[in-house]
User: Fold this.
Amino acid sequence: MANVSVKNIRKTYPNGTEAVMPCNFDIADGELVVLVGPSGCGKSTLLRMVAGLEDITDGELQIGDRVVNDLDPAERDIAMVFQNYALYPHMSVYKNMAYGLKNRGTSKEDIDHKVREASAMLNLDDYLDRRPSQLSGGQRQRVAMGRAIVRDPALFLFDEPLSNLDAKLRNQMRIEIRNLQRRLGVTAMYVTHDQVEAMTMADRIFVLNAGRIEQVGTPSEIYRTPASTFVASFMGAPPMNLLPATYNGNGSVHLNGETSLKVDAPKDHIGDIQLGIRPEEVKLATGKSATPFKLELIEELGASRLLHGKLAGHDFTVNAPNNDAPLADNLMLDIPSDALHMFDHETGKRL
Amino acid sequence: MTDTTSTTPRAKKRFRWSAVFDHSILILGSLFMLLPVFLALTTSSHDNVEIQREGLKFWFGSDIDENFGNAMFEKGGFTKTVTGMTMLMNSFILGIGFAIGKIILSMMAAYAIVYFRFRFATFAFWMIFTTILLPLEVRILPSYEVIQSIGLTNSYTGLIVPLLASATGTFFFRQFFLSVPEELVEAARIDGAGPVKFFIDILVPLSQTMIAAIFIIMFVYGWNQYLWPTLITTDEGLFTLVRGIRQIIQAYAEGSEIPEYGQAMALALIAMLPPVAIVIFFQSWFVKGLVESDK
Assistant:
């Protein structure tokens, strides 16, 4: 168990591509940090640098109180779970879990003890003699987890461990992994491109974009106060509506010159802005102060439904509770002033 | 849910003349291929004088056990010291040594090319690959010269080693290694397996079927070597079966005695057996190794 400390770490490939821009962060002991971002944003590269599978171009990486930049993966006291499990196909479940310990020179009794303990924890007792090819996807994922657990590492690394599972199993494994990590109290870094996984599992989320960390925060911080339009549109499903608007400085925002919305806290940025509104923070309304919305398409989600349409000429989505009421084409929306997020027109940064 | 389901389309499947035609062609083809083997078997059951006088025999005679016995156990050859058993042994040594040596060498070469990023790795691979254009027959004189100058003629080493370097084997293993997922290598690195451990603990067991397939090909290839053993061995104690058959027939060319046709046929049949047996026993592995990667 240990904390991780990253100082100015960066990765540049020989051809000049900057995969990971210089970044700094600390991960506390026992914390689960999720790195999330679209593919190619550098999240996997960052994880692999921590694992020791990619060289660190510059900067310093500390796991526990050791600087591990130049240590082999095996010496870093980490364990990694891969997307496609990476189990040794010719070894039984038992041997798969024992292999790392065997290489470390652990005694036979210790190996046996640890493997049995892990397999009991993961409900794999009946499968110890099977080959990975005889297991289901979820079981394989558990074996991969077991292989990580028996090493008793200071740090768990997960590289999109659930992407190969079907949706139902993914939900189940998500909870299992989270529980296990809590119970063992091991620090963990978890890479995913799935924002639901990030929101549900993380103590803290790192949102990455184009090799840079865009925002660091707890799931609710990321959701409530996204630092940029990128974070706003990436986190949350359906994504936040982003509309071009102008702000006149006196507490109201104009969409398309005509529709205007009230803003709570006046900002000193006057002129063009990007306005963000979460689909679920908007309500259907009837009052005169409401904003007109032209409905074009309804998506039924069961508990709620998504209304797609136009607000002041721009694409807009509303997440409305499903009460089976028929809807007219022209609706009125109640947009509360605290639901408005304002972003810089050019940089996309939060104002 | 009664009788209607039991009359499946299978029962209605009609007799097709094209199937008969296809099968007769196949049967004819295999008979055509098997006939020489059958002739060798029938001919080997007659005595030499009769074969010399009447040519190939189409039915069994009475001397089959005598011919096979002599072929295997009678001391023959110029020096009268070599039995068929010695030659069989030599053939096995050549075949197995050749196959195993080739597998070890080409596997290690492929391992280096695929897993170690050194300068000119691709270049090295293509160098190895182009040696396919230079089979033993093309470079036989220089090879002989080298072996002769380091004094390896008339030895098993001289017989086997010059044949070992193999582009085909290296190529097959390279393709196989490339199909092994990258994550497996990384998982092994995290598990603390160094290059040697990874090779022995992970790669070799994974390549089992591939090894079996290449073993069969190379064993048969080594077993059937003729030109190289002829050049490199003059000591009859090192003769292989394939070589020995010729030796028996050669007596005819020298004209002093009637060649031992019956024994030659018997030896030819015996020389055929091990490759056939190996192919039959390893057939399923063979196909698996070449067709699928066991992941």
